Amino acid sequence: MNQAFADTLYWLAIVRPGDSWREPAQRARASLGPARLVTTDEVLTEFLAAVSAGGPLLRRKAVETVRMLLTDPDVTVVAQSRDTFIRALSRYAQRDDKDSA
Hints:
Layout: E1 2-5, H1 8-15, H2 22-32, E2 35-40, H3 41-51, H4 56-71, E3 75-78, H5 82-94
Parallel strand pairs: 1-2, 2-3
Helix pairs in contact: 1-2, 1-3, 3-4
């Protein structure tokens, strides 16, 4: 089975109503066919933080989504560890191209 990494943008596009990336995300997922999605605790934390100001309904939907992903047999959620945190910190330090907006 193929695997594809699902980043924060993907989960936001799937969950947020009217998100401009929703249709491209759905098309990308459909084009994969049977595939396992791989994401990380860090991505899910970032996803929850990104929707935190979206109001109670969106927050509940985000929590439900994360809980579902944690038990979905077609999704692998890689647990955060000190090692993954240090690697992410190193990647962050190398990326000067991200705006703070």
